[in-house]
Design brief:
Blueprint: H1 3-14, H2 20-44, H3 49-57, H4 69-72, E1 79-84, E2 90-96, E3 104-111, H5 127-145, E4 157-162, H6 166-170, E5 175-183, E6 189-190, E7 210-213, E8 219-223, E9 231-232, H7 252-258, H8 260-271, H9 274-279
Antiparallel strand pairs: 1-2, 1-3, 3-5, 4-5, 5-6, 7-8, 7-9
Helix pairs in contact: 2-3, 2-7, 2-8
Length: 280
Amino acid sequence: MTTSTRSSRRGRSLLRTRGAVMASLLAILSGGAVTGALMASAINDPNSSRAERIAAVVPQVDPRTLSGPAYAEAAPGTCLTWSLDAADRVTSFDTVDCAEPHRFEVAARIDLSEVPGFGEGAPLPVSAELAPVGTERCLPLISRHADGREVDPDGRFTGLVVPPSEEGWDKGDRSVLCGVAAAELDGRSALSTGTFAEADQHRRWDPGTCLGFTDEGLPGATTPCSEDHSIEIVADVDVSGVFPEGPVPPDPRQQSELTADACREAGVAYLGDAEALRRT
């Protein structure tokens, strides 16, 4: 069985659940925990297979092939973005207004010159070697930068440590940028607007958005709806008064049960009539 066949069948099975449309959407939202767990695993255990997975799918958060003023002059509150070629290699690295789409918000600059293992003569560190810096030094700095707000491990943002280019490191730059970035469900860098301190950390998509697949066959990054996809978003449903009050949301199965009627109505409205929804 090919990967595409498995993906197609998985997509169809997701849409056959009770309260199909919302159940699928909620499955994606709870799936944010998968990405969060992968990122946490990569930080806490850089030798794990999950850490290798993150390193494989997020090459674009490591713009070490470039150097320039955008990196050198980045200060807390600066927002940066980068462009990618077909091979996911960084082709530009620029400063932008945080109100514009960007990939990274700088929270602090960390000097590694006094951190054991990163001093003079040390080679440019790889992602696994920077993982402890992210956990022990960067995450607290992000919270301080955002007036006490923490990065939700199940949300759409993740903490990142971006090293200088090879050229910059060889010239003696031992600083790394600590900040926060939005991430797709498959771990890839995503665009966001506004500052992290004021951003909604929930994963939300506009109606009509389609999500592809991760390598594991789970819902992944946005993709054209003309391509093979796992989910098509039909609505953004307000669950105020539907979910019981509490510090955490209900488990995904209970969420599906509680929102089944609202989900069906949203699907009918999106597709035009109940028969069109039934045919899906």
